[in-house]
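Subject: for your reference before the review

Hello V.,

The reviewers asked for a structural picture of the protein, and I figured it would be easier to keep everything in one thread rather than splitting it across files. Below is the amino acid sequence we used in the manuscript, unchanged from the supplementary table.
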Amino acid sequence: MIVAHRRAGKTVAVINDLIAHANKPGRTQRQYAYVAPTLVRAKDIAWTYLKNASVPVRRSHHETELRVDFFSGSRIRLYGADDPDRLRGLYFDGVVLDEYAEMEPQVWTEVIRPALSDRAGFATFIGTPKGKNAFWQLWDAARRDPSWFTLMLKASQTGLLAPNELAQARAQMGEDQYAQEYECSFEAAIKGAYYAEELSRAGREGRIGRVPIDRAVPVHTSWDLGVSDSTAIWFVQCVGRERRLVDYHEASGVGLDYYARELDDKRREHQWVYGEHYLPHDIRNRELTTGLSRADTLRGLGIEPTVVPMHNVLDGINAVRRMLSRTWIDEVRCERGVEALRAYRRQWDERLKDWKANPLHDWSSHGADALRMFAAGFDEPVSAPRPVEGRPRRGWRGIVGSSWGA
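And here is what came back from the structure prediction:
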């Protein structure tokens, strides 16, 4: 596990390490992989390094497959974490995951980690922090486990970059971005993060901590439904204008029946009563094979959906911002969701050197989109609410009362 500042040479180092392993005598047909957040980035970042450094020991290289074959019988190939299905069913003797902070964590746990098992393969994680996400969790766990090698390279300590260059970078980038990119800070606010200010204020005001569950107050759920990626669900209680995020759940690769069981398990565990279940508009789309929509399936599982109409994403983001100013968040039960909110950010256009209009779609989108469903469906309805196939909407809009946190 290597956390390193920008321009520290981490990609060059791990590519040479892969080549060294691939060139060792021994077992034939060894396979190694370099994985970046996307295949395009893998090619841009590592392909030239791999081709040039492997010249003395390679038998051939393949531009279309981004693959190098060695005289030893080994192979190194580049992949993108945005297409994990290309990695399924393969075996690896070693894998590098570059900029793991920008990948879906399931790529490691569900796809790559099992591919190393029968070969007793190794994994090397490298990157720069982007908040306390899965990269931080792995770093934190690795530091406590003597079977891992860990290394953090801060620009102020390595001497790889000239002091005047670092001074200029700090002045031009600002403290938060500089701390993240050059001093390997997991605590720094992420550049372009939509909710950085609101979450920082909530932390300062003590609104992120342990939040008791009021069994007299209904619990609403708010969903972002994934098809090939994660589904995220927030559990929200409302007391007057105060919002309490009391729980969060995220999973992937399972059917809607799994989430129905999860909701029932939480109801029994916490002895709460459900209110509305807010879901995006596309759950009414019917599948060609069955003729049923996901709304139909949920209804059959005992979950009556309240459909949030299609709306402008940026309007929904602003609704979440306003809601967060009066929101309390349980830091334990909602840990994954909070990190998703911290990491949710605007997309940077490298060509124009400006922010794009739309958010970056990555692992953090699921939790952020799920909360947006609640803000746009309950707090600030985006249009006149339409009932689901004639279903009348409930009139309950929270219980007016004193705040437990006042």
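For the response letter, the relevant points are probably these. The chain has 13 helices and 17 strands. The CA atoms of residues 130 and 338 lie 13 Å apart.

Happy to draft the paragraph if you're swamped.

O.
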